[in-house]
Amino acid sequence: DAGVIQSPRHEVTEMGQEVTLRCKPISGHDYLFWYRQTMMRGLELLIYFNNNVPIDDSGMPEDRFSAKMPNASFSTLKIQPSEPRDSAVYFCASSPGGQRSGYTFGSGTRLTVV
Amino acid sequence: AQSVTQLGSHVSVSEGALVLLRCNYSSSVPPYLFWYVQYPNQGLQLLLKYTTGATLVKGINGFEAEFKKSETSFHLTKPSAHMSDAAEYFCAVSALGGYQKVTFGTGTKLQVIP
Description:
The complex is a heterodimer.
Chain A: E1 5-7, E2 10-13, E3 19-24, E4 31-38, E5 42-50, E6 53-56, E7 65-71, E8 74-79, E9 88-95, E10 104-105, E11 109-113
Parallel strand pairs in A: 2-11
Antiparallel strand pairs in A: 1-3, 3-8, 4-5, 4-9, 5-6, 7-8, 9-10, 9-11
Chain B: E1 2-7, E2 10-14, E3 19-27, E4 31-38, E5 44-50, E6 56-58, E7 64-68, E8 73-78, E9 87-95, E10 102-104, E11 108-113
Parallel strand pairs in B: 2-11
Antiparallel strand pairs in B: 1-3, 3-8, 4-5, 4-9, 6-7, 7-8, 9-10, 9-11
């Protein structure tokens, strides 16, 4: 299994531009999570899906952030417009059984907004 | 509500010495507990987990942790540190009840001195 695959690994964009981060979970995992990691705030859960349905998006910081999961093998996190304070590492994780199973994380996307 | 506290943001040990990383949790219901490891520029990797049953849990790379309900602790140990253990370690807690939220600690960076 190739694990959780995220793209791109690095993204540098100008303030105001739209950014799309992509994630392919492990096949058969029915939970998908988006996390953001910064030095100041640590790991923050942004949103999670169960069977492609968004369950909790209370961690999404603003309306500028949106996430979709059109099918079981693909999810996107979009920021529009981007701001310098969005600079962080964004992780996608998937799980076969949610909290009890533990998560498999992708390698992350390092986003820099200048 | 649930939370986790990791004592010590940085820990240094000599190669071959005991590794002890401390984690205390707070949860109003029986918890699931996890330790993850993060190597530079990588995602988090599950080291071990406690769900139910035996309170001493063994994980990968020679690590183990013991769930102590009376002390609300889940400390991570390894008898003999290896240079390859240098990484950041995260304790995490999730509560039984169906709500899929894992709360991560702020992390402890382990330095191994040759």
